[in-house]
Design a protein that fits this description.
With 90 residues, this protein is α+β, with helices and mostly antiparallel strands. The protein contains 3 helices and 4 strands; from the N terminus they run βαββαβα. Strands 1-4-2-3 form a 4-stranded antiparallel β-sheet, with helices on one face.
């Protein structure tokens, strides 16, 4: 299991479009991946799960992965969050 905390940088947080980019990235990996906000944990590959967390800009989330590519999965998702979902702005 590999875990890392990250602060959501973009102003709107993980809503609609950024959440879609997030789950698309999560689905590139074989590992099981979860996102935690406070005490709630959801499947990172589920759009409804991510949206249900109500993640806004400035929120710290925890990304957890368990599986054959867990470190790459967490790193890829942390990098995406750190970028502010730059590719989604285009």
């Amino acid at each position: 299991m590999f875990v890392k905390d990250v602060v959501v940088q973009n102003q709107v947080g993980l809503h609609a479009r950024p959440a879609t980019f997030f789950i698309q990235k999560a689905n590139e990996f074989k590992s099981s991946i979860w996102v935690e906000k406070e005490e709630r944990r959801v499947n990172a590959k589920s759009l409804l799960g991510i949206l249900s967390l109500g993640i806004v800009g400035g929120t710290t989330i925890r990304i957890i992965a368990d599986g054959p590519d867990e470190e790459a999965a967490v790193k890829g998702l942390v990098d995406l969050v750190d970028s502010g979902f730059a590719e989604g702005a285009r």
